[in-house]
Every structure is written in structure tokens, then in C-alpha cells.
Amino acid sequence: IDDVITIETLQTSFQELLGNEFSQVFQKDESDTESTPGEVRFIRLPGIFTISEYPVEMDGHPHSLIHSIHNITDQVKATRELVRSKKFSELLIENSPVAIVIVDNQEKIISCNPAFEDLFGYDRELICGKNIDRIVNEADDLDARELSHRVIQGEKVHAYVQRKKKTGEMIDVEIYAVPVALDEKNDGILA
User: Quick check: 25 and 10 in contact, CB under 8 A?
Assistant: First the structure.
């Protein structure tokens, strides 16, 4: 904690703090229900903190502790926003009326949404980890392999094609497939 801000916030001085119990000076907010384990809120200090304690031997005080308090408010807020954004993105895909499948660079299915399951007749638990082309394409469909290859190479693809349902029935579908790139590296396909 920034020493000056803490002293001003606590409306005290270093001299007045010396000799006091830590828990009296830094009273934890016991009514806090938002903090997760390891996070602490104090009554007289705004923000979210972590506390570390280190035993020290001092003359006349053999069982003394040094308390190190770190303000993690910005980190906690950023983490919560990241989690919120991730959940939002997952909900968009999960609730989309458009069939969506995510595959890795080996064309293995990572996930799909309920609309994909409904369209092709597969349960996601049964197809995750399997090659997308083996699931929805004829074995000798070179065009399907070419489309997948183009997307893996970084190209966005839009096409009208036929794909196979679980029943073997061929259906007409419109495909939009885009590379999923993280850290400037193509990690998979969203289609």
C-alpha cells in the first residue's frame, strides 16, 4: 500500500500506529460477500487487498510480524471483466440459432452449439475430438478438404455446399468459416 495514501486514509500518523494491533488498525470488513479466498477488504480502506505476514525477531518483541498489504483492486476488476467477457462470448455461441462448430488446426472438433447438434443430429459429447470432415463430409470429398485447408492457411471462406447428417442424408448448407488466431498464430477454425 502506498504509505502516504494509507496514513491519510486512516487519518492517523506512523507514530500513532506503532504498537497497535494490526487487526485494530486494519479492521477487516466481515460483511464483505464479494471477495474470494485470499482477497480482503478493510473497513477504512477502499479496495481489495492481499495480506502476507512474515515473522521477525525484534528486541523486546520476540513474536513480531511484518504485514505486507498489496492493493489488487485493478487486477481483480480486470479478471472479473475477463471472466464476464468469456461468459458473454460463450453464451452468444451457445444460444445462436446458427449452427456453429469450432475445430483445431487438425480439424478436430473442440466444441459445437445446440444448433449444430440439431442440424446434423449429433450430440456434442460424441463428436468432440473427432475430425469434422469425417463427421459431415463424404470420405472422398476433396472440395471439403480444400475449404478446410484454405481456412487453416488463414483465409476466410464463404460457400454453398452439401454436408452429411448423422442419418446419412445430404443437406444444403451455407458455410462461413474463419480462422481463429490468438497471438498472431492460427489456432483453429470457427464455422
Answer: yes
Q: Are 100 and 112 in contact (CB under 8 A)?
A: yes
| Pairing, β 170-182 against β 157-164 | antiparallel
Report the C-alpha gap between 159 and 15 in whole angstroms.
Answer: 75
For the chain, helix, strand, coil in percent to 5 are 35, 30, 35
- In whole angstroms, give the CA distance from residue 117 to residue 125: 10
Q: Is the dihedral of CA 19, 20, 21, 27 positive or negative?
A: negative
SS3 180: strand
CA distance 11 to 7: 6
pTM of the full structure: 0.69
Please write the tens of the pLDDT for every residue from 81-122.
999 999 999 999 999 999 999 998 888 999 999 999 999 999
